[in-house]
Design brief:
The chain is built from 25 helices and eleven strands. It has about 650 residues and is of the alpha+beta class.
Length: about 650
């Protein structure tokens, strides 16, 4: 018990909670008096439980990457008397599970407001390549002013690194886990968090979870195969738009869930507006009915009843009696025959021209999507296409089939737009004389954006895509802009990933099997050449790095395996290196040839090692860089051999 004691630079004044792994305290940083929360690993665990230490260190590493007003902030980490700890923002609030225990459930308005904050926090984490994997009310704190704070990234996963658990091992809390988590899938995406978000929304608005079970295994099976009652059937005042959003978040297939947390936030933001607009329209309709009715005017229904009453009770003029007719000559018999004949004709016409049912159209659309034939798919969203027919007749229905068809239509539109951009770039590369005229400003901006991407001008491309999102919201071009901006986010993640791999090489003094994808290895080698030339081992070369990135760019059309963000990454680095090298033009001093410069660096390493001015690890790292960067360069063969010999000497 540390309450009242000094722990490193902190004075502990209160215990906030504890578990098997350690305890969280409230303390004050003695230098500034700032109140912080301290998470301290239990004594002894560090030496007996390597997995626990890895998880603790992982949480610190992840929190370092996050800086968002709705995510608990990390201040620092360290060890004191053998105990690991980290200091984070102290949150003076109440966890969401305690709020629910006290209130039972929340209004839909409260869920919308809290949901927007939580989506903002998730989007920030996902953009850093981090999946929380344990979203639940107890990990969300609510401050007195309504601000939400997302906490506990203890089992969060950085998508660029291997997880802490073995393959097919699940982590998280059973009631909130996604189907893919329950099945133990290793490569989880950010959409796993979106499913957990849907479970939370369901619980907040209804006061109960979507699935009930007596054991964790039964709960897993419910998430994978079970069905749930729509929230609107349990709580009648939930807007249909929120009800639909929750159901979409709880889709078993991740592909059927919303694109990302930002899209969920946008949907939440529009719900209140839609409800207010609906209420205003209803009030206006009632008001018009009252105004339009003149004073004393009978209601139409009453006038109709009066007319019907006269017709039913009125006496007709006397008719002259005629001779008795046979039954088939009577009017009533002939009328029945005419009606039957007309009915038969109408039935035949209906059978011949009846519109196909929703199921029939859906099966046609599904088969078309499975075919992968883009030309036929584009035809299907045309004026007379099968997808257009379905949307016009059944598209507003709130069921799985209609959601599928709407999603497929968007996919085709996006794919068609992407193909249009690729065709444009092929013409630009071939310097074609005749170019397709863009249809509107959004398309013109998209053309300009992909041309900027081709040149690696990230700043210009990103600005254009952002403009398209704002000016052409809820359009195909806006969806394409979202995808392109996401690819640029992946570019940043690639840089961060390469930096971590480079650090691993340094720490292990060995290359090791780090990257399996050939193009990714080439990109990492180019990055390494650039990085070691600037602030690493000093054996790289910026011009060679630019050439390597240029080579990757040229492989784009020949190699379909090079992912989109991989091409953007290479083009961007080539662009930035060109700018750096242009600034160096005009420097009068004669540069030392690369071979001599690297050899001179090896000589420096030997001298510094002899004088013990350089650690063995640093010396090995420089040798590893030379071997990795120049092993395939025939002109550098002699230097590579020298580096191999020095590395062998250092390894003895």
């Amino acid at each position: 018990m540390l309450v009242g004691q000094q722990f490193g630079p902190f004075t502990i004044d209160k215990e906030l909670g504890s578990g098997a792994m350690g305890t969280v305290y409230r303390g004050r940083y003695t230098k500034t008096g700032q109140v912080m929360a301290l998470k301290i690993m239990a004594p002894g665990i560090g030496s007996t439980n390597a997995a626990a230490v890895d998880r603790f260190e992982r949480e610190i590493a992840i929190l370092k990457q996050l800086n968002h007003p709705n995510i608990v902030r990390l201040y620092g980490a360290g060890k004191h008397q053998g105990m690991r700890y980290f200091a984070m923002e102290y949150i003076d609030g109440e966890s969401l599970d305690k709020v629910m225990a006290r209130r039972g459930r929340m209004t839909w308005e409260e869920v919308v407001e809290l949901g927007k904050q939580l989506c903002s926090a998730l989007q920030h984490a996902h953009e850093q390549g981090i999946i929380h994997r344990d979203l639940k009310p107890s990990n969300i704190m609510v401050l007195s002013d309504g601000t939400l704070k997302l906490t506990d990234f203890g089992i969060a996963k950085d998508m660029d690194l291997d997880g802490l658990t073995a393959t097919n091992c699940t982590v998280g809390t059973a009631s909130y886990m996604s189907p893919e988590q329950c099945k133990g899938e290793r490569n989880l995406t950010h959409k796993s968090d979106l499913y957990s978000l849907g479970v939370m929304f369901y619980e907040l608005v209804t006061g109960r979870k979507p699935f009930q079970a007596d054991s964790a295994m039964e709960m897993f099976m419910e998430h994978v195969n079970g069905t749930f009652e729509r929230p609107s059937r349990l709580v009648l005042d939930i807007p249909i738009w929120l009800d639909t959003l929750i159901c979409q978040l709880l889709e078993k297939d991740p592909e059927k869930r919303p694109l990302d947390a930002n899209m969920v936030a946008v949907a939440l933001g529009s719900i209140r507006e839609k409800v207010e607009a609906q209420q205003s329209a209803g009030v206006e309709a009632v008001r018009r009915r009252l105004i339009d009715r003149a004073p004393g005017q009978k209601r139409i229904e009453e006038e109709d009843k009066d007319a019907a009453r006269v017709l039913l009770t009125g006496k007709g003029k006397s008719k002259r009696k005629r001779g008795k007719k046979l039954f088939y000559e009577k009017v009533w018999f002939q009328a029945i025959g005419l009606v039957l004949a007309l009915g038969f004709v109408v039935t035949l016409l209906y059978l011949a021209f009846r519109p196909p049912s929703a199921d029939e159209l859906y099966q046609q659309v599904k088969a078309l999507m499975q075919s992968g034939d883009l030309d036929k798919q584009v035809e299907a969203i045309g004026p007379n296409g099968v997808i257009t027919k379905y949307i016009l007749k059944y598209g507003n229905q709130d069921n799985e089939q209609s959601r599928d068809v709407r999603r497929w239509r968007e996919q085709i539109q996006v794919r068609e737009g992407e193909d249009l951009l690729e065709t444009h770039m092929q013409k630009v590369r071939s310097k074609a004389v005749f170019m397709r005229k863009p249809d509107g400003k959004a398309e013109a901006d998209a053309y300009e954006a992909v041309e900027a991407e081709e040149n690696g001008d990230r700043e210009k491309a990103s600005k254009l895509w952002q403009n398209i999102k704002q000016q052409a919201s809820d359009s195909t071009w806006a969806r394409i802009a979202d995808r392109r901006l996401a690819e640029w986010n992946a570019v940043d993640q690639t840089d961060e990933k390469f930096a971590r791999i480079y650090k691993q090489i340094y720490n292990n003094s060995s290359e090791g099997p780090l990257l399996t994808d050939e193009r990714e290895r080439e990109a990492f080698l180019a990055w390494r050449m650039e990085h070691s030339a600037e602030n690493g081992t000093g054996v790289g070369d910026l011009r060679l790095a630019r050439t390597m990135f240029q080579s990757l760019c040229e492989k784009r059309d020949q190699d379909s395996g090079l992912r989109k963000h991989g091409y953007l990454y290479a083009a961007w680095h080539k662009h930035e290196l060109t700018r750096k090298l242009e600034k160096e033009e005009g420097v009068a001093a004669e540069k030392v040839p690369l071979k001599e410069r690297v050899r001179q660096r090896l000589d420096d390493v030997r001298k510094q090692r002899k004088k013990e001015q350089m650690t063995k690890k640093d010396a090995k790292f420089i040798c590893l860089d030379i071997l990795a960067l120049y092993d395939q360069n025939k002109e550098m063969a002699e230097v590579v051999e020298e580096a191999k010999k020095l590395l062998e000497e250092l390894s003895k």
